[in-house]
Amino acid sequence: MEEEYYKVTAEETIKQFETDRNEGLSTQTVDERFAESGPNEIQQGEKTSPWKLLWNNINDIIVYLLLAAAVISFLMDDLAETIAILLALLLAVLTGFFTELKAQKSVESLQSMIYTTTTVIRDGKTQTIEATKVVPGDILLLREGDAVAADGRIISSNNFACIESALTGESEAVEKSEDEIYEEEIPLGDQKNMVFAGTAVTRGYAYIVVTETGMQTEVGKISGMLDEESNDKTPLDVELDKLSKAIILAAFIAGVAVLIAGLLTDKPFVEMIHISIILAVAAIPEAMPAVETITLSKGMRTMAERKALVKTLPAVETLGATSVIASDKTGTLTENQMMASELILSDETHYEVTGEGYDPNGVIKKDGEEIDPQNNKELLHFIRSGVLCNTAHIDQNEDGEYEVVGDPTDGALVTLGKKVGLDRQELEKDGFEKVAEVPFSSENKYMIVVYEKDGERELIIKGAFDVILNLADQTQKVKEDLKEQNEMFAEKGQRVIAIASIAGYDGGLSEEELESSLAGLKIQGLVGIIDPPRPDAYESIENAQNAGIKVKMITGDHPKTASIIAKDIGLADYEKIMTGKEIDEQVDSEDFARIVDETAVFARVSPENKMQIVTALKEESEVVSMTGDGVNDAPALNDANIGVAMGVRGTEVAKEASDMILTDDRFGTIVDAVEEGRIIFDNIKKYVSFLFACNMVEIVAIFASVVFLLPMPIAPLHILFLNLIIDIAPAMSLSYEPAEENVMARGPRSKKDSLVNRHFLTRIVFSGVIIGLSAFAIFWILLSGEQSGEYLQTAVFTFMAIAQLMHIFNVRKTNSFGLDRSLFQNKVLVGSILLSVALQLVAVYVPVMNDLLGTEPLRPITWVIILVGAVLSTVIVGIFNKIKYHH
Question: Can you tell me where the transmembrane regions are (predicted)?
Answer without folding.
Answer: 57-76, 82-101, 246-265, 271-291, 687-711, 717-739, 760-785, 791-809, 829-848, 860-880
